[in-house]
Design goal:
Rossmann fold; about 15% strand; two-stranded antiparallel ribbon; single chain; about 55% helix; 2 domains; 10 helices; elongated; alpha/beta
Length: about 325
Amino acid sequence: MIDFRYHLVSIISIFLALAVGIVLGAGPLQQNLGTQLGDQVSALRTEKQQLNDQLSKAEKQVAAGDDYATSVASRVVAGRLTGHRVAVIEMPSVESGLVDTVEAALRASGARVTTSVTLTDDWFDPAKAPERAAAAKEAAAALGLSSTATGDALLHEVLARALVTKAAGEAVQDPGSRKAALTVLTSAKLVTSPKTGPTPADVAVLASGEDFTGTRDAVDAESRSVRSLALALSQSSAATVVPGGDPVAATGKVVTSDAVAAIRQGSATSATISTVDHARQGRGPAVVVLAIEAALEGTIGQYGVAEGATAVMPEAAP
């Protein structure tokens, strides 16, 4: 049985330990700890400043590289797409800067941008599926298109057949029927301000918009729709390329994606359709032209630096 003396010794030991700790903490240990903490704070400040300097230097180098790429882009792409016509299909919320710089590079390459169509949000809205099906059927009739497809699949086929053809000199549908089909889609508020040339283009550029976000099911559904449209364009054109801006994950959203990522995630689309991420500036617009040139020659690639890219850019022919 433990007696009172054991408890007394224990209590005295505790107080002695506290006293020793207080003495040491107020004396030599206090100075050592203070010095160590001060040194660590100073070292962290120095490291932060060094990292900021490195970041600033890297940003200047990237900006200089973009300026150089922009200045030489016209020389790099000159004459590469002469004789080809391009249809630009813009996703909802597409960056105007992306479309402007890509179209400028296309014109510098000798191509003619003969068609420009902007898709509306209703194109992907699940609640608008019945309206899209009705518009697709009416547009197919105006186009003189006979197809077993229905719903969104028919809609994608109609748009592709109205805008592009595999041969640069071939006009599969007369201008009147193409215009009538696009008028149906415009009236149904599925596309806005379509501008078309007298004959279909032989190259399709599906310009990716801002990232689409939401639940996994919602993003997967939009990704499938993007792949279906891109495949329809690919099947009707000589080459289809999907350029996009800088991919950005949306804060607080469950899932984010964009047209470039959607194409890269599909085995059928990634095998037949080229993509270019970071296409808005720097070397991006020129890479789009080189990707089209490579696709016309039968080489498909996923170009850029984002997830799913297989190369920074195609090998440019002399």
